[in-house]
Amino acid sequence: MAIPKDIRIDLPPEGIPKRWYNLAADIGQLEPPLNPGTRKPASPEDFEAIFCKEIIRQEGSAERYIDIPEEVRDNLVYLNRPAPLQRAYRLERSLKTPAKIYFKREDMSPLGSHKGNTALAQAYFNAEAGIHTLTTETGAGQWGTALAMVSNLFDIDCTVFMVRGSFEQKPTRKALMRTYGATVHASPSPQTEFGKKVLKEHPETTGSLGIAISEACEMAAKDPNICYSLGSVLNHVMLHQTVIGQETMEQMRIGGIEPDYLIACAGGGSNFGGFAFPMLGEKIQGRTDCQFIAAESKAAPSLTEGEFKYDFGDTAGFTPLLMMYTLGQEFIPKGIHAGGLRYHGMAPLVSAAMDKGLITARAYEQLETFEAGMAFARTEGMVPAPESCHAVKAAIDIALECKEKKEEKTIVFCMSGHGMLDLYGYEQYLDGTMQDSSV
Amino acid sequence: MAIPKDIRIDLPPEGIPKRWYNLAADIGQLEPPLNPGTRKPASPEDFEAIFCKEIIRQEGSAERYIDIPEEVRDNLVYLNRPAPLQRAYRLERSLKTPAKIYFKREDMSPLGSHKGNTALAQAYFNAEAGIHTLTTETGAGQWGTALAMVSNLFDIDCTVFMVRGSFEQKPTRKALMRTYGATVHASPSPQTEFGKKVLKEHPETTGSLGIAISEACEMAAKDPNICYSLGSVLNHVMLHQTVIGQETMEQMRIGGIEPDYLIACAGGGSNFGGFAFPMLGEKIQGRTDCQFIAAESKAAPSLTEGEFKYDFGDTAGFTPLLMMYTLGQEFIPKGIHAGGLRYHGMAPLVSAAMDKGLITARAYEQLETFEAGMAFARTEGMVPAPESCHAVKAAIDIALECKEKKEEKTIVFCMSGHGMLDLYGYEQYLDGTMQDSSV
């Protein structure tokens, strides 16, 4: 098969965006986070124990654009930005669809996913504020790895509380964080008061993301030179991820590509928001009628089955309450390979876009997403991360709908990461031992 | 730290070379391979049972350039070619060296290493010849993965004989090949006569690369529509890999970079040859006095401790004899994480360059190479493959020699692959349980 020359649209290093796009400027007044004690709107001071001032400012900002500091732009090169936009010709051909399918390649980062974009920005602002250590929690390890890696770029330390179950079951993920120089504790740990308390009450516990968040926040709150870093959900995280969508828009402009569908998987919302928000701003301004689809897991279907209400960000109820689509703070999802899609809630900005009818969502079972990932690997040559398989599945479904209707639509989706660290999932799929979350 | 704008030199898709460079044209008459039965120079017909005609023609060619078919060039995009050339500013700074260090990014392939460059070319020529199935052997799985992936691009099947020990210990590598659609057999297998014989005599064996080669060749020899594919050592493999070195030369030209040292790790020689040969041709023509360094493992130090003589390519003695630096066909290297550097011999073209004094070699122990890999991960943000750690170690050593001598030399090395599938090695290093091969 002859490969057309326009298969990949690259941008030069200067193509890294100069400012972040803030959807909060265009989507209308957001419901504010509430202080968990008083249930009144949280003030910036409520966050000062764990976040540096610039991060808090960005979190509450309604400015449409926020300049990306030169040093952050320069360092994005270490995440292999700009990322290519590629056309999935071979997938199109195998589906016999008249639709065009493009994908944005966040898998090209040395971290294997999009997570580094906000990690890098957060590490920079904290280093500028004189913070010497960042703490965070991690489940499967992707976010902890991203923060561990970028901390080196700004000569700060990184401490990761890793859910004990993953700590024991995923030694190579732990090894990767340690290779990047991070200190990794199994959570609950004896390093914090909260961890000690949990260990005393439940010495055999395998931990939870909620417990790990509590430990990371406690460590940050105790020392003014230590801050906490979060990898999804909050407004400033969405903001930093908009480099993805802005690059994509520029690449679509260069390629003369007018999208009918923009698709990304959504767990906490950072990948979907980063990819979709810049174009969603165009939609709010009436400059496109592109449809936006969030692909989520049926194991944690916050957008398709959740309720839009105030809820805690964590399980224990320590964090501020956020106005979001949620399955409830106590919701415990089934164990699926797409660990990044197991969150009980959804980013307030993504939730607001859903509430206003600007975006739609589709939820998928595990098996059908891996089937899509297999089809993608065999046609396009790269193995998608289990999370990204949800976006692939949605893109394939829409391409097949186009075939049915004989419509030459243009589909653009975000390949949020590769699956090189998730091959156990593919093995289970191939061996026929994988189950859907409904089973 | 401000990041200079010239940190990365990209080439556009049109920057993929239009022809392969053949060192055989410049290095002088090579000693021919010998028929294992007659010990006389092997004829092209000797190879026809397992290779297609075009591959055999390339193997024996002395033309300086061989055109790369348009379809091969187009499909190299699926390996994310052209690959960037990047400057390791942060590593330089951490070493306090006046030397400049650049690295070629073969880690950017979706396969994680350089192996796809020749796999793709071989799959193309075999598909053109009407071959419907390619067979090969694989140890750790990198080469098998590369052939499995590219076979899809040309709609042919791929059967991999994987050394039983790896098959059982590295299920995710096997899963990756199967995800790409390959049939994977544990070797020795009941699929071949030779496999059955070995299994009968040694039912508990964990297999060997030699046995797996024999099985793959047997399957190819039995059916005219099946051919065998080899991932290193032979001349046509070196040829296909020269896209690496040619891209690097063009990037050096664009960046005004004049290298004093070119460094690559060497196991069978395909990575070293592909990276170094185009520039080595320039050296033979008197157009550069750059030094070339092959970084090998002390576990299999063919160039530094081997003998230049005729030897078999496999353990069993079924293959033609090749004139090469070798530790002997029966040499069994210690188990090291750099599985790609455990071969007993060295490609005839690399060996000839060594014999003529055109290149030098340095051998390293496992621990010091992982130490170098750790330093690289923490400064430059990507984790090198264990094989590539040998090149990193050589680059660091030379940069430190430059510091000692206050010399502003320019070092360019090949990052042959990333270490995302080798994190167990890093874990061992971090835990202090790793040993050198001399222990």
Describe it for me?
Chain A has helices spanning 53-60, 70-75, 89-95, 116-128, 142-153, 164-169, 171-179, 193-201, 209-222, 235-255, 270-284, 302-305, 348-355, 366-380, 386-405, 423-431; strands spanning 8-9, 19-21, 65-67, 85-87, 100-105, 133-138, 157-163, 183-187, 226-228, 261-265, 291-297, 307-312, 321-326, 360-364, 410-415. Chain A is of the alpha/beta class and 439 residues long. In chain A, the strands form 4 sheets. Chain A has a 7-stranded mixed β-sheet, with helices on both faces. In chain A, strands 8-7-6-9 form a 4-stranded parallel β-sheet, with helices on both faces. In chain A, strand 10, helix 11 (270-284) and strand 11 (291-297) form a beta-alpha-beta unit. In chain A, helix 3 (89-95) packs across helix 14 (366-380), helix 4 crosses helix 10 (235-255) and helix 10 packs across helix 11 (270-284).
Averaged pLDDT of chain A, please?
95
Tell me the β content of chain A.
Answer: 15-25%
- The main sheet of chain A orders its strands as 1-4-5-15-10-11-14
Oligomer state equals: homodimer
Low-confidence stretches of chain A: none
Largest interface (CB within 8 Å) is between: A-B, 54 and 54 residues
| Envelope shape of chain A | globular
Give the biggest beta sheet of chain A: 7 strands, mixed
Distance between the termini of chain A: 41 Å
Count of DSSP H/I helices of chain A: 16
Q: What level of helicity do the residues of chain A show?
A: 40-55%
Class of secondary structure makeup of chain A: alpha/beta
- Number of DSSP E strands of chain A: 15
Whole-number radius of gyration of chain A? 20 Å
